């Protein structure tokens, strides 16, 4: 993980990566977007060490990306649900999936696709200008420091 101090790192991307940039964290978020909510199911589908999963879920709860909700009293058991902040990562996850499909293709094609629940059409992330509303292509983007 990145240092917590951000010394010389006045960067919105660095701040985001500090919370979600670790490999297991994004895979946990992906699993949650696919409907996984229970600790044992995360363990099973991710093949992740129990202590690593517990630490990552704790961090996601701490940052308001997931919430820990009891689903059983005796013994007490919890599930982990995405909050609106966590669901807001959908675009980032889909953008990374699209990038992988374009630049790291598999012979059998993509293993997952994001579909629109209303009509089953494929969902894609695109850049759009907030000023003119036009779709913007990668080569038309200038990332610049504003302060």
Automatic annotation (TrEMBL):
It comes from the Bacteria. Keywords: DNA-binding, Transcription, Transcription regulation. Residues 11-108 form the HTH hxlR-type domain. It holds the Pfam family HxlR. InterPro entries: HTH_HxlR, WH-like_DNA-bd_sf, WH_DNA-bd_sf. Signal peptide: none annotated. GO terms for molecular function: DNA binding. SUPFAM superfamilies: Winged helix' DNA-binding domain. PANTHER family: TRANSCRIPTIONAL REGULATOR, MARR FAMILY, TRANSCRIPTIONAL REGULATORY PROTEIN. This is Transcriptional regulator. It comes from Streptomyces solincola.
């Amino acid at each position: 993980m990145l240092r917590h101090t951000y010394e010389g790192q006045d960067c919105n991307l660095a701040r985001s990566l500090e919370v979600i940039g670790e490999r297991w964290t994004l895979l946990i978020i992906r699993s949650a977007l696919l409907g996984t909510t229970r600790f044992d199911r995360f363990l099973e589908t991710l093949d992740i060490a129990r202590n690593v999963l517990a630490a990552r879920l704790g961090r996601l709860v701490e940052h308001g990306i997931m919430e820990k909700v009891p689903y059983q009293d005796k013994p007490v058991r919890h599930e982990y649900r995405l909050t609106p902040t966590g669901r807001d990562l959908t675009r980032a996850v889909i953008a990374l999936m699209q990038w992988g499909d374009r630049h790291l293709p598999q012979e059998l094609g993509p293993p997952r696709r994001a579909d629109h629940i209303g009509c089953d059409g494929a969902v894609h992330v695109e850049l759009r200008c907030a000023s003119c509303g036009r779709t913007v292509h990668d080569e038309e983007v200038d990332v610049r420091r504003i302060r």
